[in-house]
Specification:
- The chain folds into two domains: 1-33, no CATH class; 42-90 and 99-142, no CATH class.
- Helix content is 40%, strand content 12%.
- It contains three helices and two strands, in the order ββααα.
- The longest helix has 25 residues, at 42-66.
- It starts with 7 loop residues before the first strand and ends with a helix.
């Protein structure tokens, strides 16, 4: 594989210890040597997958509550150009009135796309226990 000058990054560290000894290291990192998303092990990859899943569900619930009585078109927090945003920690009241389960058309589409990603990751990780979450996503896509 050949690398152009823009495909690598030079890293250099230096330090001086308390005795005045100066040392360091240099390394070249080839940016194309790893896939766009690289995880050093399946545990981290699963953690990232489940974090994205939880953030998606939180954003969906927040959006559906916010726009429950809104009669104009609206855009979800989760978008193709920005991805799944991290929902705010402080969302207000502890107790809220209940709402009927609502899955707006934008979120049906988002859940459909995410389910494909989720399934690919489930098989890449080799963890069939994630099938339950995949079934939830499929149910959300198919719900009325």
């Amino acid at each position: 594989m050949s690398y152009g000058s823009s495909d690598k990054v030079y890293l250099r560290t230096t330090y001086e210890d308390r005795n005045g000894w100066v040392d360091g290291d240099e390394s070249v990192v080839y940016l194309e040597s790893q896939p766009p998303e690289y995880f050093p092990n399946t545990g981290i990859r699963k953690g990232v997958l489940l974090s994205r899943y939880a953030a998606l569900l939180k954003n969906w619930m927040m959006d559906e509550r916010q726009y429950a009585r809104y009669d104009q078109p609206w855009s979800p927090r989760v978008r193709e150009d920005t991805g799944i945003c991290i929902p705010p920690e402080n969302v207000g009241q502890w107790e809220r009135t209940s709402l009927d389960l609502t899955i707006s058309q934008p979120y049906r589409s988002i859940f459909r796309t995410f389910a494909g990603y989720f399934e690919d990751e489930m098989y890449a990780i080799g963890d069939e226990t994630l099938e339950k979450e995949l079934q939830v996503l499929d149910w959300l896509v198919a719900s009325n």
